Amino acid sequence: MYNTYLMANDFNVGIYIRLSQEDKDKKYESDSESVINQKELLRGYVKNNNFNLVKEYVDDGYSGTDFERPGFQSMLEDINSKKINCVIVKDLSRLGRDHVMTGYYIETFFPENNIRFISILESYDSFKNQASNDSSTFIIACNDYYSKQNSIKIRNVLNEKRKNGKFVGSLPCFGYMRDPLDKGHLIPNPDTAPIVKKIFKWRADGIGPTEIANRLNKANVITPSGYKKTNYSSRLIDRDNWNISTVKKILTNRVYTGDLVQHTQTKVSYKSKKKITLDEKLWIIVENTHEPLVDKDTFEYVNTLRKRNTRNYEVKTNREKRLLEGKLFCKECKNRLTVLYRKKQDYWSVNCNRYSRDPVRGRCYSHFYPYNYLEEQVLEQINKCISKLIKELNIKELNDEVVKSIHNETTNIDKMVKEFQIEKEKITGRLKILYNDRCDGVISADTYKELASEFEQKLKQINEEIENQNVKKYKMKNKANILPDYTKKIKKLLDLNKPKKELIDTLVDKIVIDKDRNITICFKYDIVPEVTFKYENRNLARNTYGRKGKNQYSKD
Predict the structure, then answer these.
(1) CB of 399 closer than 8 Å to CB of 434
(2) CA distances from 488 to 55, 320, 502, 516, 528 (A)
(3) Are 501 and 323 in contact (CB under 8 A)?
């Protein structure tokens, strides 16, 4: 073993302590698991073995499957700066519960950095060649399995609480706070509830979201993110100023009517931080669980106003939604493209709302189109794509085909993940061999670092790919769970000569347009492969935009 010549007082120790939220809730083990008791056990061990205690690293309330814990990361920094050369934990599960990453730190990272690692309860000591060390791999795998089972149990418990009308989120929405006597019950927050009530009153009085945001900013009213002290990020443009989006989010939040709306998102895996939004059918909604800040009639009235244009364009034009409205998306910024009626020029246009609101800052690209020509070309492509499908449409066969397709895709994903896991194990094995070669003097330290760096980078890429595939699989399963018998709708609505918006909503998932005028039509449930085509400039007429009373597509 390495460094066998070192004496006890040569070891500068960092003791690592971790306690997850689940550990805090344990009835029988909480005394031994607590941060205080872990500290006492570890300090006593250090003292009895005459080690030098340099620093204590504590992560209180962090999962063992997440290695981005602040205390753990601080310990790694001190290892890299040579402040400590020994790490001691109460047991292996305190270091981590992910068997791959925990194994990597114990078997690769610590030896590579000449770190002695000790786990007291398992009698594991990397400094000693002893039989008890051999059981570590099995224990690490058991800890991972425990984490997975625990995650399933916790999800089930949380869902039961949600169904019983208990709030289980981390922070209540703006305007509410937890009841001190019942943490699962919400009560109005005296500081922020009046702000929410005022927003609803203003909107009900006919004041638009833009003016509401301006009024709140002029009065220096604290924002939801400012009140929660949300960290700044690239997605959060301005934490301290109200904007249209924030106001609309409050106006559309059903929680303010006294109903709890939960389970709108979920993590793709117990090891992943990534979340996906669930279909509304899977949301858990319980009515009348807490005191409302707005009555339901006012809430419904305010949300009917949302469907109208604030400047009353709909009243002036008396228009229905255009056929493709709500389906058009900008490829660059992912936002919906706006369909707008220009009254003075009497024509419809399409553009990226993000760009048109602030073209100077160049937050996106112009996606300007005369709407009529765009719709014409999209319908032509849809007609081509599904004409054959229409003739041979068989409802049962088509639904079976969709289910079969989803099953095949999830099976392929499982196969890919398994292959990635095998590759992962191979790389870990190579890293071990590489380390042994360095210890035996077969390769130099510089060569080892160079080769190990390549393997570690590959390992990182594989982990990312596994996570992406798991996200994709979860979305596919979610799609299968909510798969409607949508082909019946197609049969009823099918008339491509005069297509209805309902048909487009049934057939088309979205239409994505890029800055180079490439248009991609994505169909729902893969009943038809997506099609991409280039927008054709047909504005050859004097009447460029297809104005009323004239031939829209004349080429005179």
Answers:
(1) no
(2) 67, 25, 12, 37, 16
(3) yes
Q: How far is CA 391 from the centre of its chain?
A: 41
Give the number of other CB atoms < 10 A from CB of residue 489: 15
CA–CA distance from 553 to each of 334, 347, 496, 543 (Å)?
30, 13, 19, 8
The token duo for 407 is: 């099953």
> Do 43 and 15 form a contact (C-beta atoms < 8 A)?
yes
CA distance 462 to 455: 11
| pLDDT per residue as tens digits for the range 431-450 | 778 777 777 777 777 777 77
Q: Measured between alpha carbons, how far is 125 from 141 in angstroms, rounded to an integer?
A: 18
Q: What DSSP letter does each residue of 137-187 carry, written as one string?
A: HHHHHHHHHHHHHHHHHHHHHHHHHHHTT---SSSPPTTEEEETTEEEEEE
What number of H helices and E strands is found in the chain? 20, 18
Q: What pTM does this model have? A: 0.40
Instruction: Tell me what pLDDT residue 488 has.
Output: 53
CB 366 within 8 A of CB 355: yes
Q: Phi, psi at residue 187, to the nearest 5°?
A: -130, 155
Q: How far apart are CA 522 and CA 520, in angstroms?
A: 6
Tokens of 281: 């059918």
CA distance 331 to 337: 10
Mean of the pLDDT values across residues 498-507?
Answer: 72
Assign residue 466 a region (left: φ > 0; alpha: ψ between -120 and 50; beta: otherwise): alpha
CA nearest to 101, candidates 75, 76, 64, 126? 64
Contacts of 465 (CB under 8 A, 6+ apart): 420
For 1, residues 6+ apart whose C-beta sits below 8 A from its C-beta are: 126, 127, 128, 129
> In the β-sheet with 518-523, what is the strand arrangement from edge to edge?
328-330, 508-513, 518-523, 531-534
What sign has the CA pseudo-torsion 214, 219, 220, 222?
negative
Q: Report DSSP letters for 332-344, one per residue.
A: TT-PBEEEEEETT
CA–CA separation, 285 and 408 (whole Å): 33
Q: Which of 159-173, 313-327, 332-346 has the lowest mean pLDDT?
A: 313-327
Q: Beta partners for 522?
A: 510
Please check whether residue 480 is in contact with residue 403, taking contact to mean a CB–CB distance below 8 angstroms: yes
Pairing verdict, β 328-330 and 265-267: unpaired
Cα angle 364, 368, 369 (rounded to 5 degrees) comes to 150
